[in-house]
Write a structure and sequence with these properties.
Oligomer: single chain
CATH architecture of the largest domain: Beta Barrel
Number of domains: 2
CATH topology of the largest domain: Lipocalin
CATH class of the largest domain: Mainly Beta
Order of helices and strands: HHHEEEEHEEEEE
Strand order of the largest sheet: 1-3-4-5-6-7-8-9
Number of helices: 4
Helix content: 10-25%
Structural class: alpha+beta
Length: 171
């Protein structure tokens, strides 16, 4: 076969493989496409700048991360064993300031928008509103590690240390 013919043949074969329905090449998804969906919290661990490891939501935290295809996100994380309010009803206005403080310490929530830096495998979230009002408008960046149905997000704050949150794709 002539050199130009080999090149043409190779290009046609590559194109043919890419359009086959079962082809791995045809099934490649962007990181953003792979992240879309609901994710159940598995663990959350913070390492302080001095190397101390902490689990701010306990050893068995509960939570969800939702990343929709339109770029909206929501996160809710809670300690399952937070103290109950003493009020006899579920009316939140009856809770004391101390009860609210204890409840808030074991809870995190925010919603906003999200995007991905594909080249750096980074998830970028901008909070519209967060449980901690100081975080309203905050932009966070997390390194993404995605293996099958497990998603690990690692945030390294400017002050040092890191936070690793692991999710499993919700079924």
């Amino acid at each position: 076969m002539k050199p130009l013919g080999v090149l043409t043949f190779s290009a046609m074969m590559a194109l043919g493989l890419a359009v086959l329905p079962g082809s791995t090449v045809a099934q490649q998804k962007t990181l953003k496409e792979q992240l879309v969906g609901a994710w159940s919290l598995v663990s959350n661990e913070t390492t302080t700048p001095d190397g101390t490891k902490q689990q701010p939501f306990g050893t068995n935290p509960k939570g969800i991360l939702i990343l929709d295809a339109g770029g909206q996100s929501a996160v809710v994380i809670g300690m399952p064993d937070r103290p109950k309010f003493k009020a006899t009803s579920n009316f939140r206005a009856e809770a004391t300031a101390e009860e609210w403080a204890a409840a808030a310490r074991g809870f995190a929530a925010n919603f906003g928008t999200w995007s991905v830096d594909e080249a750096n495998k980074t998830l970028i979230r901008k909070y519209t509103t967060a449980l901690i009002p100081n975080n309203d408008g905050l932009e966070t960046k997390a390194s993404v590690s995605l293996t099958g149905d497990e998603l690990k997000l690692t945030v390294t704050p400017a002050a040092g240390g890191k936070n690793e949150t692991v999710y499993r794709r919700a079924k």
